[in-house]
Amino acid sequence: MKKRFFALFCLNIMFSFLHASSFEDHKKAHMIQDLEVIKHHFEAGYAPAEWKKEYAGWDLNQAFEESKNEILSHPSITTKEFQKILRGFVRTMKDYHVDIVFSSTEASSLPFSIKGREGRYFIDWVDPIRLPPSHYGIRAGDELLEFDESPIAEVMTPLIHAYGKSSNPLTDLGYATMKLTMRSGMEGDDVPKGPIMVMTRSAKSGKIAIHQLRWAYTPEQIKSPLDFMEVLNNLSFLFPKTTKEKPSIKVPKIMMANPLHRAFAQKYAARDGALGSRKSFIPPLGKVIWSVDNDFSDDSSDPSSCWHGYIYRHPQGQKIGYIRIPHYLASYAQVQEFGKILNIMEEKSDALVIDQLHNFGGFVNCQYALAAMLTDRPMKAPYHRIKMTQKEVLEAYELLQFLNVFDFLLGGEEEGSHPFSSSNSSSSSSDSYYDDEGSLQSDEDDDERWMQWNYQEFLFLKDYCEILLEDWNQGLTLTRPTPILGIDRINPNPKYQYTKPILMLIDEMDFSGGDFMPAVLQDNRRALLFGARTAGAGGYVFSFQFPNSHGIAQCSYTASIAERSNAQKIENLGITPDIEYEMKSEDFQARYQGYVKAVNEAVETLLEK
Question: Helix, strand or coil for residue 221?
Answer without folding.
Answer: coil
